[in-house]
Amino acid sequence: MRGVVQPAQLSTDRGAMVTVWLDGESGYCATADLSARGLQAAADCAAQWARAARGRGLGLAEAPWQLPGATLRYEGPADEPLPSRAELLAMLRAEAEAMARDPRVVHWSASLRATESAQRLWVDAALVAEQSFRFVEPNLEATAFADGRSQTRTLGGQYNGFCRQGGRAALRDSGMIGGGARVADEALQLLGAPNCPDGARDLLLSPDQMMLQIHESIGHPLELDRILGDERNFAGTSFVTTDMFGSYRYGSPLLNVSFDPAVSGEFASYAADDDGTAARPQRLIERGILLRALGGELSQARARALGRPVEGVASSRASGWHRPPIDRMANLNLEPGEATLESMIASVERGIWMQTNASWSIDDSRNKFQFGCEWGRLIEGGRLTTLVRNPNYRGTSASFWRSLAAVGDRSTMQVLGTPFCGKGEPGQIARVGHASPACLFRSIDVFGGES
Fold it and tell me: Are 393 and 371 in contact (CB under 8 A)?
């Protein structure tokens, strides 16, 4: 922070999660002891938990997992490795110095986290899945202050939005290299900008804000374990119910959303989920109609047992070896349309263009929300005009997506991701990918962050 090099952090861990299926119930136990003795002890413990659940747990007639006939393998995109640690440190120092050239910039940071992960899944001594990943998480942040006011601009939001799998190409595509001067300059511009006006306006959202909108108001509401009530005590439920699938109008006919674990380089691409189910692209919402849930095999089996069958996807994931798999978002993408950015701007008589998430709040049924952005530009008479600070908007998931009036084409699309999706008891922080074009919504309640 503020030009001070922080110590490089290097950590390594390994372990195993053992799952036992016994008389219609499952039990879990994690261990860092990978010896035969340690694994056997974990299996015995997991079996004890499965027996303890008898009569008060799942009570399923048969194991829900549909395992592939051959080992599923995944390796991240063919990309050059990241530069050496010395080169990366020099790059971070250069971007930090570029942000600190104006005395009004009072805080600045440049950071990069790189993670390599390998996992293997065995079922009854058979290797079901073998996967390896390289994750890259860059970020820049600059805060400017003058006359009692501060404004912050980042590379990809407070949640590190430009996250990918890969190496040099992922780092280059993030815009981090050479981005320090731009981030600081935009923070300074915001200092002199007027506060965002209040009232109903058309709303154009860039992909780095669409990412958060998709995450909170489509991703979390469609998690099947949440719909079945499992998250009630921790992160809430969902306004979505099991009888909505197949008929509920989630959004306008322009809305097409896919679970797609096959996008090269996206943050949560994989070949198999953590229950061993083969992952393939599937539509969750098609032409605005809700079709499928983000639910793995276990949650789908539970829904059938309750008489509320719901089709799901291969989205049962664990944040690490020390956690059991639960229903999670993975790559949740809004598919591109046909509109150019210029045509969307030209179609707006009175509106605002917002970029880069700064704040978020949503109720425990994932319906009523209020989101804030770092950067806003008014649109008047089909033209971009005044820069405004502290732009915010609010709505409800159940109606917001029905106001979708235009979906950007591939030229407006970005592949993004975040490492900070929290859920579960005990808590799990998972990596999630979101790809989206820019999107235009009609007559949204917009307001400024200052009274």
Answer: yes
